[in-house]
Amino acid sequence: MDTPLKRTPLYDAHVKAGARMVPFGGWEMPVQYSGIIEEHRAVRTTVGLFDVSHMGEFEVDGPEALGALQSLTTNDVAALDIGQVQYSALCYPDGGIVDDLTVYRLGADRYMLTVNAGNIDKDWQWVTSHAGGAHWRNISAETALIAVQGPKAETLVGRLAERDVTTIGYYRVAYGAVAGVRTLISRTGYTGEDGFELYVAGQDAARLWAALLESGRQDGVAPIGLGARDTLRLEMRYALYGNDIDATTNPLEAGLGWIVKPAKGQFLGREAIEKVRAAGPARRLVGLEMAERAVARHGYPVVKDGAPVGVVTSGSYGPSVDRYIAMAYVAAPHAAVGTDLGVEIRGQAKPARVVKTPFHPSRTKK
After folding, report:
1. Model pTM?
2. What number of other Cβ atoms are within 10 A of residue 16's Cβ?
3. How many other C-beta atoms can be found within 10 angstroms of the C-beta atom of residue 258?
4. Which domains does the chain carry?
5. One-character DSSP codes across 147-188
6. How far is the C-alpha of 293 from the C-alpha of 313, rounded, in Å?
7. Residue pLDDT, tens place only, 319-331
8. How far apart are CA 212 and CA 147, in angstroms?
9. HSE on the CB side for 286, CA within 13 Å?
10. For 299, left (φ over 0), alpha (ψ -120 to 50), or beta?
11. Which candidate, 71, 97, 202, 222, places its Cα nearest to that of 142?
């Protein structure tokens, strides 16, 4: 029998709100409420709420925690101040990506990792088998996560928070009650808009969700499904694990060289990644703009003069840019901005061009 889909603490709230539920990463999640384009535009213009409680969270602490994270992750964890967040990756020895993740420094010797929902079990096995003497705890099952994203996110969260959230900078985190719920308030997100990701105990999630919806009525708040989450992150060129990055992709070819810090010393995958750096990536993840109304979907071939030169990883209509856009791995000689290519859609090569990314400007608070 198939493994039953897991449900977040907000499942009943989604069903009550009329969300269309779909399987995603082993979970039953809302893909849309009112409609993907409408929800997308709500986040860009007012504020949206996302249930991302399916994500995984691991705590690691003790005097060996920093050493363990330095050997596991590509970025330099030693550069983090207490209350700071870092985007990073776990890599295999061959340089392939185990997962992309965020690293939180919560105390002198205390950290938290947030990992992708479909990778929780794999990541847990990976980090604990390479952990050294650090103490690990998988808190995924007991932790809920609500993202509040959009131009009015600060106003909404600030109205309900006991502390001044304007003092929490981008990629910073602090504890504080929100709507009476103990919350880890993180100024992070996956949309390119200002906003917060609110970590709470699972049993408190429904109360916080309801309070945000009620208080946010005056701001035009809307619940947002995975469909709009995908189009929002695509406009920002944010990688999605399983689509744009995976065990077969190297961080450098994925455009993630900025989170690889070889100067910090040895870490898993360092030697393989540095070999790619020395030789230059054979392919690069680029942004494509379609010349006509055509959706370039994951797995579609990318061609140049009829010959295959790459493959699409993500593609959709971008509501904020009013264009059909995509990301694709393309052979390095064809990866320059301005290169004319084609995407094979139902046997026809539809014209596309390599363009500068992100497709939409970031409006996160720096």
Report:
1. 0.97
2. 8
3. 10
4. 1-279 (3.30.1360.120), 282-355 (2.40.30.110)
5. EEESTTHHHHHHHHBSS-GGGS-TTBEEEEEETTEEEEEE--
6. 18
7. 999 999 999 999 9
8. 11
9. 29
10. left
11. 202
